[in-house]
């Protein structure tokens, strides 16, 4: 026997019979949503009440095979085995599923004893052999489980529907499996509100924001996206340091938080200013992707193999200064646009090579023919490079704590806070010609800082044991003071 759940979808159920068994079947089918016609010359008071309430229809006459027209289900529940047998035969001839209350083995299905806890349905089926006991077991199970099981089922169904709509097939199973490992209490306590995420419109920003939304979905939190065109995105033809503003990729996202059009915002951590406004809080730093910069070329297999006067595209003063120290014989020219646009310009021959962040290439799953990461010490990355940052309104304590508990990666946070503290100590912005990178190993952070000043590079590195954020920030300030 195969237990299944059958949706009525407007199809009618026919009950042939007038007694208490027919009444029980009618009540079960009504609870499942079936329109019902009872065929019998006379019916018991339980059925009369349902007719009087307008919940079922009654044909006060003997059964006729034509009653099965347009029926999805038929129940034979008379006191006559012969009549029941005829109902079964007629139903089979018409392709209608049928149940025989006088002989369960003769029918196609039995109706289990049912109890409902919210959206959760508990069915207990004895195969028609002990319906009274099945009903008792169903009642006792419902009493034992309690209302939180129904709340858990409703919340799981809600978030499952969201995940199916919001994420591609290859990401859904991991999210749903993690949800399914939660306790019933955790599932029942999930918040039903949907959060709004402010994100830049670029393909990379969309992927990054969806990655944060996927982490939240694993904990039952749904998100809708609010795509925003930032000042930096709207003026891609100009180098960032010539736009005349600071925080060119951040201001509009912060405005969406202040205006309460969004609940949280996702940024590339390297785009954040060294100090945030008092009303905006950095509530999580995601696990860091590859922080290195990458040499990308269609013709040359490495930075060292470039000929003199080759054209290298980069709009980052940090990259330009460090690369020029390595290869002063190469020309460095500005390049703007999203990652795909820059790679297209490379393919079209506008540049001999360009330099991009490895994290962006990996998240987009793209690369040039020759893609070679620079060693960290050769080209020190930007502060926060490779990490995602999530910001929210400082006053939203529950939201900040929730996002932090779900998204924050402790090791990445220590390193990024060390780097950001150094940048703040230098009173420099995210587009300054400064590279700072911290790495955590065996409880110790090694932080390297490179700053360009008057055509020369100032380099400093420190290492210390770190137990928490305060110590990481203190190390960042020390390396900045050493480099000053």
Describe it for me?
Mean pLDDT is 91; it is low at 240-246. Among the domains are: 12-111, Rossmann fold (3-Layer(aba) Sandwich), CATH 3.40.50.720; 293-373, D-Maltodextrin-Binding Protein, domain 2 (3-Layer(aba) Sandwich), CATH 3.40.190.10; 410-484, Porphobilinogen deaminase, C-terminal domain (Double Stranded RNA Binding Domain). The chain has 16 helices and 20 strands. With 484 residues, the protein is α/β, with parallel strands linked by helices. The chain is 38% helix and 23% strand. The chain has helices at residues 20-32, 45-52, 81-94, 131-145, 147-166, 169-180, 184-188, 203-217, 231-234, 251-258, 317-326, 339-347, 358-364, 397-407, 410-425, 469-483, and strands spanning 12-16, 36-39, 57-59, 71-76, 97-100, 113-117, 120-124, 194-200, 222-228, 264-268, 280-285, 293-297, 311-313, 331-333, 353-357, 370-373, 388-393, 434-441, 444-453, 456-465. The longest helix is centred in the N-terminal third of the chain and has 20 residues, at 147-166. Helix 5 (147-166) packs antiparallel against helix 6 (169-180) and helix 15 (410-425) runs parallel beside helix 16 (469-483). The radius of gyration is 34 Å and the shape is elongated. The strands form five sheets. A five-stranded parallel beta sheet has the order 3-2-1-4-5, with helices on both faces. A five-stranded mixed beta sheet has the order 9-8-10-17-11, sandwiched between helices. It has a five-stranded mixed beta sheet with strand order 14-13-15-12-16, sandwiched between helices.
């Amino acid at each position: 026997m195969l237990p299944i759940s059958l949706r009525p979808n407007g199809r009618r159920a026919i009950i042939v019979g007038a007694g208490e068994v027919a009444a029980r079947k009618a009540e079960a089918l009504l609870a499942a949503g079936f329109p019902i016609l009872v065929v019998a010359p006379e019916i018991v008071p339980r059925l009369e009440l349902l007719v009087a309430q307008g919940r079922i229809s009654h044909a006060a006459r003997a059964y006729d095979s034509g009653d099965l027209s347009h029926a999805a289900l038929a129940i034979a529940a008379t006191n006559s085995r012969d009549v029941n047998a005829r109902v079964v035969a007629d139903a089979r001839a018409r392709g209608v599923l049928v149940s025989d209350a006088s002989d369960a083995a003769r029918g196609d299905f039995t109706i289990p004893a049912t109890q409902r806890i919210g959206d959760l349905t508990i069915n207990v089926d004895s195969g028609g052999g002990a319906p009274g006991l099945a009903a008792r077991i169903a009642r006792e199970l419902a009493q034992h489980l309690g209302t939180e099981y129904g709340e858990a089922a409703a919340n799981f169904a809600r978030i499952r529907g969201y995940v199916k709509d919001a994420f591609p097939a290859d990401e859904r199973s991991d999210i749903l499996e993690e949800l399914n490992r939660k306790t019933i209490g955790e599932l029942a306590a999930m918040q039903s509100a949907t959060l709004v995420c402010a994100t830049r419109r670029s393909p990379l920003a969309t992927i990054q924001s969806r990655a944060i939304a996927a982490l939240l979905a694993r904990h039952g939190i749904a998100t809708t996206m609010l795509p925003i065109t930032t000042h930096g995105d709207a003026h891609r033809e100009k180098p960032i340091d010539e736009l005349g503003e600071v925080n060119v990729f951040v201001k509009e996202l912060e405005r969406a938080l202040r205006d309460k059009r969004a609940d949280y915002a996702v940024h590339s951590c390297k785009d954040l200013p060294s100090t945030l406004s008092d009303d905006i809080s950095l509530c999580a730093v995601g696990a860091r992707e590859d922080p290195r910069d990458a040499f990308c070329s269609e013709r040359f297999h490495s930075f060292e193999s470039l000929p003199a006067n080759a054209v290298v595209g980069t709009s980052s003063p940090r990259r330009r200064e460090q690369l020029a120290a390595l290869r002063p014989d190469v020309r460095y020219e500005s390049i703007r646009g999203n990652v795909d646009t820059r790679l297209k310009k490379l393919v079209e021959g506008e540049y001999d090579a360009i330099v991009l962040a490895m994290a962006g290439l990996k998240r987009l799953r793209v690369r040039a023919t020759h893609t070679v990461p620079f060693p960290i010490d050769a080209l020190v990355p930007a502060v926060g490079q490779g990490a995602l940052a999530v910001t929210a309104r400082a006053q939203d304590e529950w939201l900040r704590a929730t996002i932090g508990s779900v998204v924050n990666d402790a090791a990445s946070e220590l390193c990024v806070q060390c780097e950001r503290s150094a940048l703040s100590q230098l009173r420099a912005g995210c587009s300054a010609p400064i590279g700072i990178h911290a790495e955590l190993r065996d409880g110790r952070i090694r932080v390297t800082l490179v700053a360009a000043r008057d055509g020369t590079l100032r380099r400093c590195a420190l290492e210390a044991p770190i137990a928490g954020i305060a110590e990481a920030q203190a190390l960042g300030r020390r390396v900045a003071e050493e480099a000053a």
